[in-house]
## 1
Amino acid sequence: MENEPAQPAQITNRQIAEVLSNIADMIAGQNGNVYRIQAYRNAARGILDLQEPAASIIERGETLQLPGLGERLRGRITELIKVGSMTINNGFYMDTLPQGVRVLMTIEHIGPYTAIRLHEELGIDSIEKLWMAANQHEIRKLPGFGVRSEARLKAAAEQLLPKSQLANHIRPLGAA
């Protein structure tokens, strides 16, 4: 007897809402359009308020009827339900971020939120400044950072800096 292929699990309304909320957070992390952020948050709430799974509505060929839901976002939600992923990269613009933030995002362990915080709160805009701030124990003073995360960022920066550049910053105790 042959086994029937298993039906893929249907995405839940809660999962859809989490994806939408995470996208809203990413847009906010890039200091994006407040109306766009609000649209994603409203869509997440609307999905949670549905009386039936959004996936069932889409499978029947019906349109999601959520207040204030635009065509583009409706299409992205449908894509998420049908394909299991959502194309959003064309909505994020790296060039809207300051150059220093973009530089920091090239370093291992640093995403947009961390890069923006380091840039705005400590003025870090280069790999060298990240290494120096970690070496001077400045990063651990920020809320949400500690000794381990500071050490991890320092090690990641060291991997990218030439050894000669690091040697110029290391001075014996008592040296000016």
## 2
Amino acid sequence: MVKEHYSALIKTEAKRLGFLSCGISKAQFLEEEAPRLEQWLKNNMHGEMHYMENHFDKRLDPTKLVDGSKSVISLLLNYYPSETQNKESYKISKYAFGTDYHFVIKDKLKSLLHFIQDEIGEVNGRAFVDSAPVLDKVWAAKSGLGWIGKHSNLLTQQVGSFYFIAELIVDLELEYDTPSTDHCGSCTACIDACPTEAIVEPYMVDGSKCISYLTIELKDNIPIQFKGQMDSWMFGCDVCQDVCPWNKFSKPHNEPLFNPKPELLSMTKNDWEEITMETFNKVFKKSAVKRTKFSGLKRNIDFLKS
């Protein structure tokens, strides 16, 4: 009964903090994922993301990340916007419209961990927001928050896929949720729509061909083979999510920090082509777009317009 009580307490507090949903799974070695990850790396589908090769063991085993860990608490936070960009614009992935999610979610996770410690006692744990070797989507799926779709994003029937995934890994035993079932069926909308054919087979994305990778992670010049295939995306890409039938159920978030600056929505291709460092710093203050830097965004825009 104690485990059930603690789990219910944590889920109630997660909802109060604004999380979309919360699921819990047992912290243990991800046996099924090990060969998949190994093959993906061997096929160089991570491109220049060499950090993906590091900490292979930790990526698959949370007990190597947090001593004595017993539970992975997975959380979803909605970022689906109520407004989108001007139609005549180069495009930015919806997740980057507002304040960098790392800041927003880290604060919520710390609050949740403090709540657990206050209510339950001495619990050790760590908060993770895709900045450490944790397979977020796998843990979220294991804890019943959704299934991993053919585009390799987490999907739920109720709210689609426009949300962030984060975790608390704690040394507290809790009641564990069961995985949900796959509801992609025979649909291939994401595979058919991918502008660069990065979804090489159902459930397998070649990261080195993905527009998100090309516009954010890749530091060299974008390979010439992708000319005319980028679909006006200058930072990230939402195509596989935009075409997914389950995203008909996406509802706008209610996190003020994720609201975009008005300029971001109204700027045209011409405005972007003439963007100055000053405008970049103003529009993207505290934004995830800062990752690509002014020079990176300019590189992407130049590639799209030439």
